[in-house]
Amino acid sequence: MIRVASSPQPILGAAALGAVVVFAVCAALPSAVMAIDLSRLYGHMSSKRNGDACHPYEPFKCPGDGNCISIQYLCDGAPDCPDGYDEDSRLCTAAKRPPVEETGSFLKSLLASHGPNYLEKLFGNKARDALKPLGGVDKVAIALSESQTIEDFGAALHLMRSDLEHLRSVFMAVENGDLGMLKSLGIKDSELGDVKFFLEKLVNTGFLD
Question: By 3-state DSSP, what share of the chain in percent is helix, strand and coil, each rounded to 5?
Fold first, then answer.
């Protein structure tokens, strides 16, 4: 049901824009790395490429029937797509997180700065060789974006319990303002601000709940 909001929010707010970028990036990734049903999403992107694009003030096209809805109606607690796709829990989690593209770039920057095995210090032994045993940077970025909690993240990537608890300790240290933990992982002083900001974004959107 399309409704008229009494006090409409900005169409491209930060969270909403994050959701748009998540979908744009995810549509370009192999289906093997996606948990969200991409068969509908590919159809959504294809129709937009064919010129059947939604109006700018209703830019999100429901993958099922092509109905166009405003960004402000994504994840508002009431389904607007006939199949409720605009209220998908993974979409709504991702909408609160940094966009997948941004997360992937962040992980790649750490690997470029510290070497291909650096992220073992965060995610454990399976994170060697530029995250290839975990499915690659894109899969990890998607899991960070759409996993509601750290437990969901561990399950999505099949992390060992010991590695998951280590990762939890890193997040808890950041939550408590202990930058010494990040320094002990080899994070450079010039990187501390960015790393802290990124981890805090996850914490503040329920990653440790």
Answer: 60, 0, 40
The strand pairing partners of 68, in sequence order, are 61
Question: Cα(first)–Cα(last) distance of the chain, in Å?
Answer: 32
Distance of alpha carbon 86 from alpha carbon 154, whole angstroms? 25
| Complete DSSP assignment for 121-140 | HHH-GGGHHHHGGGT-HHHH
Chain-centroid distance, C-alpha 46: 22
Distance, CA of 6 to CA of 33 (rounded, Å): 39
pLDDT per residue of the chain (209 residues) written in tens, 0 to 9: 434 343 333 333 333 434 443 443 343 333 333 344 433 443 444 444 444 678 888 888 888 788 898 888 888 899 999 889 889 888 888 888 888 899 999 999 999 989 999 999 999 999 999 999 999 999 999 999 989 999 999 999 999 999 999 999 999 998 898 888 888 888 888 888 888 888 999 999 899 98
Is this prediction's pTM over 0.70?
no
For residue 98, count CB atoms less than 10 angstroms from its CB and return exposed for 0-12, middle for 13-18, buried for 19 or more. buried
Return the structure tokens found at 22.
């998540």
